[in-house]
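Final report, closing paragraph on structural work. Over the funding period we assembled a curated collection of sequence-structure pairs, and we close with a single example.
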Amino acid sequence: MSRGLGALGRDKMLCLTSSQPKRLGSVFRILLTGLLTLALACINTPVYAWDFAGHFIVAAIAEQQLDPPVKAEVQRLLHLLADAEPAVSELIPASAWLDAQNWNPDFGLMNDWHFTGLPYPPSSLPPSGRLIEVSAMALKTLHGPRSSDFQKALMLRVLLHTIADMHQPLHVISYLSAAHPTGDQGGRLFALGGPYPNLHALWDAAGGQYPYLKLDNWQQALPLAKRLQAEYPPDRFGARPPNPHAFIADFLENPGRWADESYLIALTAGYNDIQAGREPDARYLERMRIACRRQLALAGYRLAHLLNAGLVMPSVKTP
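Its predicted structure, as stored:
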């Protein structure tokens, strides 16, 4: 776990540069069929990150920051799997495509791609989930000169989702206690009073400050993203990385660095001043809603930088 990140209230801790502390269609159906045996051996309880509204906001912010050639390539890759259920081909609704893969209980291959449960207090228990590993794999595939169009198309849909997941604080922590000695599954076992059944659900909904959106009304996220960008413009988190390739290399070398930041936010704003079984008070909700807005904006800008840094390059043709 990274140390010495400083006070979470300082936006410079969450900057976009690479100076942060480093931490230790038919084609698609063919893929699913080939992987089904492995999937059945990997089934976990489905875990979802930000509600669709959160994912749509992150994707909308990222889309507005894409360089024109990159945006065109993103659109081309999305259309390659436009028939893969659920059938979406626009960037914003495609950001929730990975969650939809969990709707089939017979297909569990991707269930643990949404989280990495870093234990707190630190213990000998290994982190659960593959969020960090999968995010690095997706980015490496997208920027790999030997990657086929199909591989890029699939991993683009993965990365659009997992970068947002990595900025949801309750998706990178598992709180250990006497009641839950092996962890609380990112707050899913931390019951609450009120409209949200547990702490994880509360954070997934960003504290209830956004409407519940679905794949067929994703356009409603556009004004939400615009408002969030006005509150948190790009320069709030630092300048655009001057060396895109170094930005990519740093992420691949230290893919869990952003998860470390979210982990600290979970400790200071997630599990602080809240009691199990009780409804969170107004002070807690205000603090966590601010944290969620900042994380959503930051995730959108960072996702754009990852895509802008060399996505447009020739691909190996799929046989």
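Residues 25 and 81 are 5 Å apart (CA to CA). Residues 282-308 form the longest helix (27 residues). We thank the funder for supporting this effort.
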